[in-house]
């Protein structure tokens, strides 16, 4: 019954939000059987397969399209609008409001919440109250078609910092939440490489795509006998997903069909940190896995700094 409700809701809500309201992801989520592509594709198109990552485009000249100060202001505006939205008891029934604030993985989580609301009328989302230090990760060079940034902050009432990613498509007035996850206990987001203006260096999107592919392969392989590691990367032996997999897999689990764009930056030590999410088929949304993945310089193993299995 729960699964049937979620399937019906996901078809209706995601179809309206992702197409009817004009919200288009920056790059289409990669289906499970699609190799990494050299460039983003628009919804409804098929990415051209590629066996090796394409080189990162040369940085463009000119002033940054998004400043750290503007990112901070955008995050504050988003939090205020989000808290106002979820005050409404049936906020998940308003696709227009959701499309203005939520994107990518956050939309899939909203579909899950809407199914929960159908079963439990008293269930509510907690407002986000940012406390303590906030760390912004704003790349100087932005991808074609929009701007992104990440934020690390602590919520009031939470005992762990969270890492959030925001995206604004070109021509749209405000940012949407792309993904979020609490940090694992005892973990820290690696320090980024910053220039004199405080901007981070964006990590190659192609590497982030390979990491997401590796995670998708890992989670969709019950005995991990499929081509794990074929991307050139492999989950570290002490990766948190290796610990969580046995418990999660025997519960309510559906294979991940695609994943979101991987937003990432180069760390001070020369490694890379990315935030991305694994998604079900939109016709059967039951869970979202958002991961903060770190690959140290010179290594091909993936450490998991943050992780959230939303179901």
UniProtKB/TrEMBL annotation:
Region described as Disordered: 31-69
InterPro entries: DUF8094
Domain spans labelled DUF8094: 67-277
Pfam families per UniProt: DUF8094
Low complexity bias (residue ranges): 34-49, 59-69
Protein name stated in the entry: DUF8094 domain-containing protein
């Amino acid at each position: 019954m729960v699964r049937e409700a979620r399937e019906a809701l996901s078809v209706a809500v995601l179809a309206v939000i992702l197409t009817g309201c004009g919200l288009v992801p920056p790059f289409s989520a990669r289906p499970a059987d699609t190799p990494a592509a050299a460039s983003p594709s628009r919804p409804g198109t098929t990415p051209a397969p590629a066996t090796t990552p394409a080189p990162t485009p040369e940085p463009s000249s000119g002033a940054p399209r998004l400043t750290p100060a503007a990112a901070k202001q955008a995050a504050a505006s988003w939090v205020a609008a989000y808290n106002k939205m979820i005050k409404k008891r049936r906020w998940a029934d308003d696709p227009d409001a959701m499309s203005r604030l939520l994107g990518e993985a956050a939309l899939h989580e909203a579909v899950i919440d809407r199914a929960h609301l159908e079963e439990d009328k008293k269930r509510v989302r907690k407002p986000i109250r940012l406390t303590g230090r906030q760390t912004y990760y704003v790349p100087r060079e932005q991808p074609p078609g929009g701007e992104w940034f990440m934020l690390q902050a602590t919520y009031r009432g939470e005992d762990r910092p969270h890492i959030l990613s925001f995206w604004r498509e070109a021509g749209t007035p405000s940012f949407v939440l792309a993904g979020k996850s609490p940090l694992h206990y005892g973990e820290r987001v690696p320090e980024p490489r910053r220039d004199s203006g405080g901007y981070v260096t964006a990590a190659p999107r192609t590497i982030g795509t390979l990491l997401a592919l590796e995670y998708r392969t890992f989670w969709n392989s019950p005995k991990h006998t499929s081509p794990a590691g074929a991307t050139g990367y492999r989950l570290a032996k002490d990766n948190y997903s290796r610990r969580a997999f046995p418990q999660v897999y025997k519960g309510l689990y559906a294979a991940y069909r695609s994943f979101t764009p991987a937003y990432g930056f180069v760390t001070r030590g020369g490694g890379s940190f990315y935030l991305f999410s694994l998604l079900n088929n939109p016709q059967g949304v039951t869970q979202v896995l958002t991961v903060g993945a770190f690959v140290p310089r010179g290594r091909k193993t993936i450490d998991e700094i943050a992780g959230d299995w939303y179901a």
